[in-house]
Each structure stands twice: as C-alpha cells, then as structure tokens.
Amino acid sequence: MNMKKIEIEKKLEEIFKDRLLLDTADLVSYGFDASFGQYMPEFVVQVLSTEEVQQVVKLANEYVMPVYARGASTSLSGGALPVKGGIVMDFSQWDDEFEIYPDDLIIKTRPGVRTGRIHELAEKHNLMYPPDPSSSVVCTIGGNLAENAGGPRGIKYGVTKDYVIGLEVVMADGAVIRTGGQTIKNVTGYDLTKLLIGSEGTLGIITEATLRLIPKPIDTKTAMIIFEDLYTSGKSISKILTSGVRPSKMEILDHNALNKVEDYAGLDLPRDAAAILLIEVDGEPDNLIKELNIIKKALKEINVENIEIAESKEAENKLWQVRKLVSPAVVESGYTKISEDATVPLSKIPEMFKKIDEIKKKYDLNIVVFGHAGDGNLHPTINTNMRDEEEVRKTEDAVEEIFNYAIEIGGTLSGEHGIGVMKKAFIKKEMGEDGVRYQQMIKRALDPKNILNPGKIFPEEGEERLVLRNE
C-alpha cells in the first residue's frame, strides 16, 4: 500500500470508524450496479451528514482521488460505477431525514431516501410528487436527481428537474452551496439547480433537495388500445395528443413485450396484437369518460376501434400490472437484461419500431420494445448471454445501431437513464465536437481536478464504441 493510500485510509477511519469498509467482499459489492462492468473502489464510506460528505470531498480534492456518490445502485447507465477506483460514498444509509411542508407544497429530503417513501408521504397529505421512475420502490431520490429520472407520468407532468426548486450541494473543493430556495418562482442569478440536476454527480454532490408537490388528482381511468400493426400504433400517439386530451400516462408494448408478459403472468392479453397502448387520464371523475370518448373519436378517424376501458379499479390495476411486469418477464425469460432508452420524435416512433425489428432479425437477438409512448421514450431491451463472446459482440453492434438511428431521425441517446459509461462513446454523434467541448469546459470550471465521478458522460481516448464487459 502506497503512502498516499495509507494517509487517506487513516483520515477516513478517523471520520467514519466502522462505517469505513475495506474488506474485499465489501469493495467488490460496491463495484457494480444495474448496468454492466465490475470496478474495484479503494475505499467505501457510508455517509450520514453533509459534514461527512464535505470532509470526504476535501480529502479527495487534497489527494486528487476520485470520489463516487452511490445510492441504491439501480442505474442502468453505470452512473455510479467507480471506474477510476477511489472512494465510493454510500448514501443509502442516510435515509431518515425528510420532511413535508404541506402548506408550502414542498418536501425537503436527503439523497438516500427512497423515492417510493416520498410518494407515500405526499399522498398522506393528498398531494403528489409526480416523477415516478419504475424502480421507485427501491431507487433513491439522489440517483433520480443525478440522472434527471422520468417515468410514465412524464407525458403530462414532466420529469425530476421540473419539481426541484432548491438544492444543497458539496462542490469539488469542499464548499457547500445552496441553489434555488423554497419558492416556486426564483430567477435570482444563474439556474444552477437545473444545471446540477441530470449532471450525473460530475459537477457537485447533492446532499439535500427541496421538491415541489402538486395536488393529487381526484380520480383516474385507464384504457387499453389494441393494434394490428405497429405503424398505426405509432400514428395513434400523435392523434391522441392532438385530440385536446393530455393523458397522464401513455405506455406502449410491442408484440414481443406483450407476449413475454403473458408467458410470465398469464393476464389474458391479446397475443396476436402487434402492439398495445395503455392510457390513463386523471382529474375530475365526471370528465374522465368524456376524455376517453374524445380519444376514441380521434382514433376512429384512423380506423382504430379496438379500445377496452377498465370498468373498475381492480381492472385498472390489472392493466398497469402489464406494464410493470415487462422487466421481470424479460429477466425471467433468460440471461442478462440490457435496457436502453433511446428517445425519438413522436412522429418517428413507427420508424424506430421498424428499425429495431430489422436489427433484431439482422443479429438474431431477443429484443422487446416498450416505453413511454407519450414522450417518445422507448426502451429497446435485449436478453444476452454475457458468457457468449459472439453474442455479446452482436449485442454491442445492435445497441450501437439503435443509438445511431435514434440520433439520425432527430432523437437522443437518453430520455431518463443518463449517459454514464454505457453511452459516452456516442455523445459526440448527438452533440457534435463543439457541443461536447463546451460541456467539458463547465466540468473543468467546477471540478478542475476531475475528482467527481470521473469516467462518465465524456469519452476518453480509445472509447469510440460500446463495450458491455470491462474485463
């Protein structure tokens, strides 16, 4: 062990005592997340206060050692992977500090609090925190903030950044700053809050967030629309959104995803359908059927009439089970699940479906497609045998083609998963050399020693393509 590492270990031990983890088994367990690759950190610390975070960052800054913030490790882009070694800060134990202020319609929370607990607390006061990532039962709000997480309600209510009005942040030099505040309106100075949300922990480490709440809708109603061809399903999305109704959720499953769920759960789904669309409307109970009727009328103009409306809450919950079960159904069907989230303009969804089907046949891969139809955020998901080198190579080629095509038709690499390590090889294709250069200038200005989550977002030399394994 070199002298630098010995000194860092001694100082970390003084701060954390038994919350400093050094055993090989612990280090290995903090070296992966829900994406791919295995990286070994040198130290793991379980932080419980802003002061502790500040001390770690000051230490990392002094010794120029990488530091990685980590929550529940549900990232699908490798957002928290310690790719350069260094110190992992585990926030998952810091989950007992969050408080609601119902009269102000805000919640103050620490980053280790699970998103699902925030939903529960808001609902007790008849309020709602709209961002609802599919992993909300297990993921932490800190990860949501870092990746600007979305979810099914994004179509109507937006994503994480739309509900963050204030932050406490430890910067790369150890300074603690506050951005925004406790008011909905705030245009004082640069909007550092929005800059930090979605920056994947590369510009600062969030230690507190003030979240905006809204009144919880009184009621909801759900319908399932069944399609005989993918083109019409894609065309229907724009038709619905221009009908005068704004659904609160609009989720699509292709034929393959639908059948995976049916194999897994036996929900009596239409196996022959090319795709299904699940739509939820929310608001005043008397308006919900009227809104669904407007949607039915709009769809009738393009000869879509196979629409089933849930007649009870039980039936409604059953329909949403279909969407929730896609990921476990894909996992159950075998091997490693690679879930992407290329996002395309609404009018290009049919073309994207067609392209993915071509890629599936070209590489002979098991690909299903589902996602948030209302904002074009699709999740092409591949089952891959990571022990089969040839299949891994084909998967890497297929994912690269999916990303390239999404960019070609005006889309983006990520709608909600972030760039992390999984997509950084492609960022210049979307943003261009100058676009990336200016973002890197921001990174260098706020983190001149490159200690905050290094190895993410921006490709380094030799990182020109996706690599699923780092061995």
Describe the SSE topology.
Layout: H1 3-16, E1 20-21, H2 24-29, E2 43-46, H3 50-63, E3 67-70, E4 87-90, E5 98-101, E6 106-109, H4 115-124, E7 127-128, H5 141-147, H6 154-157, E8 164-170, E9 176-180, H7 192-196, E10 205-212, E11 214-215, E12 219-227, H8 230-241, E13 249-254, H9 255-265, E14 275-283, H10 285-300, E15 307-309, H11 313-324, H12 326-332, E16 336-339, H13 349-363, E17 366-372, E18 377-384, H14 389-408, H15 427-446
Parallel strand pairs: 2-4, 3-4
Antiparallel strand pairs: 1-2, 5-6, 6-10, 7-11, 8-9, 8-10, 12-14, 12-15, 13-14, 13-17, 16-18, 17-18
Helix pairs in contact: 1-3, 8-13, 9-12, 13-14
**Overall 3D geometry?**
globular
CATH topology of the largest domain: Uridine Diphospho-n-acetylenolpyruvylglucosamine Reductase, domain 3
The CATH architecture of the largest domain comes to: 2-Layer Sandwich
Detail the poorly predicted runs.
none
CATH class of the largest domain: Alpha Beta
Strands of the widest sheet, in order across it, are 15-12-14-13-17-18-16
**What portion of residues is helical?**
25-40%
**What is the total domain count?**
3
Protein structure class = alpha+beta
In whole angstroms, the N-to-C terminal distance is: 23 Å
Mean pLDDT comes to 93
Give the amount of beta strand, in percent. 15-25%
- Tally of separate helices: 15
The whole-angstrom Rg is 23 Å
User: What summary fits the major beta sheet?
Assistant: 7 strands, antiparallel
- Please report the total strand number as a whole number: 18
InterPro entries: FAD-bd_oxidored_4_C, FAD-bd_PCMH, FAD-bd_PCMH-like_sf, FAD-bd_PCMH_sub2, FAD-linked_Oxase-like_C, FAD-linked_OxidoTrans_Type4, Oxid_FAD_bind_N, Vanillyl_alc_oxidase_C-sub2
Cofactor: FAD
Keywords: FAD, Flavoprotein, Oxidoreductase
Family: Belongs to the FAD-binding oxidoreductase/transferase type 4 family.
